[in-house]
Design goal:
heterodimer, A: 463 residues, alpha/beta, six-stranded parallel beta sheet, 59% helix, 7% strand, B: mainly alpha, 4 helices
Amino acid sequence: MNAAVINLGYLGASALFVVGLKGLAHPRTAQRGNLLGSLGMLLAVALTLLDRRILGFQTVVVGMGIGAVLGAALALKIHMTAMPQMVALLNGFGGGASVFVAGAGLLERQNAVVPALSQFTVAAVASGVIGAVTFSGSLVAFAKLQELVTDRSLRFPGRGVLTAGLAAVAFGLGLWLVLTPEPHAAYWLVVAVSSLLGLLLVLPVGGADMPVVIALLNSCSGLAAATTGFALNNNILIIAGSLVGASGFILTQIMCRAMNRSLVDVMTGIAPPAGTGRGDEDLYAGRVKAGSPEEVALLFAAARRVVIVPGYGMAVSQAQHSVAHLTELLHSRDIEVEFAIHPVAGRMPGHMNVLLAEANIPYELLKDLDDSNPTFEQTDVVLVIGANDVVNPLARTDRTCPIAGMPILDVDKAQAVVVIKRSLSPGFAGIPNPLFAADKTIMLFGDGREMVQALLKALKEGP
Amino acid sequence: METAVLGLTIFVLALFAGFEIITKVPPTLHTPLMSGANAISGITLVGALLAAGSERDWLLSALGFVAVVFATINVVGGFLVTHRMLAMFRQRPKMEP
């Protein structure tokens, strides 16, 4: 087919991507947005298959078949609880694809009679670096989320120097490749070095910082596609890639703001300076009240308004269905129930929302930080399930603590607070939480799901 | 040089468009937005197809083949999982017993 016709079609596909992405950012249009985006993709792929440069279809069809089966199996089989891993994996595949496409593009230009123009080589190298960092970084994120490696921050002396050294080596190799485009192997050296770089960049990122990294890798997978577009001189790759780059970056910013930390701090694994001078024992000694489910059930029975604050602990213990039952039971007794969700609760942006939606909890009950904070004063009981730093009042009161200034859920303003948690161990920030020692707080020590179920039982048998 | 500048122009304008169209994303849509956007970044499939189908060189075809598999997983998996999530958000059965 005529190249101009194909490019016109690509323009149509690009427009569909813009409209689709816009739709995805609003609740009412999200489903349509996703469909429009996939329609754009279908159009782009169909037109590409009509391109005269494609001479053989065997490799193409087999490759697409394998990819489609694997992709569909992943998407349909995956449990909603494993969504953070799935997103990490998809980001990785995006980065990996860019690495191989840019490598192929480079090879093609080197084989051509006309010598490769350096601007295309520069783009291919950039694509190799960003793509490889995204690929290996996402695999590390996946391994952490799947708990194949520890999700704590892994740091060792000299890491900064090593990272900088690797970046310099990647840059040097890239420069060599641009100046003497002869050895194709140099590209794969760049890719290998960049993969190591991705490893070193994500390893020091600890669990609670994961939402930032997942959003950033999402952005990078888009940027990798865009740079591949430069390498192939293909506009639709540039357009779609930069749209995704932008959307991922916006999410990254939202996450950083919700933690009051800079992106640089998160990526270098700079842990906030620990220590407020007061030890855990000072703060907690003799002041923590451990309660029983029966006690808490009495509290609930007398309440008119309950707010549930879910955290990563709810995800780990897979308590979302029990929480849904609790919500139903409280509703049936005319008790108002709402959920207050902190933007960085869990391990990826929107983690808690996905889990609660899976348990069929109506979307209207899920409130964000700004909507829920003014309501805590009129709330009788707050039930915190496996959250810690996001409800720590020190963020408001102690200017020297590591989370100073981080926007938190002001649950301490409610009449009573019930915290389900396995122990008094500190959260990611490594500081004690005065909320646990407050007079109005009752601790329910135990696994999230077991405790919610015990609470349910106590409520049903109780008054 | 001219093509590079043209490409850069498109790149910068598309970035601006991206920043403009995605405003005030409600937290519920954070995850679907990521997975949906990720599926769109699977557009590298276009480049992968051209490489895999060129039949000029076995190495080129091999690189293209791997890229086609990766990018198709990205596209199919991304759109499908996003659809699944959004469908879940949509069905809101009444909680009243």
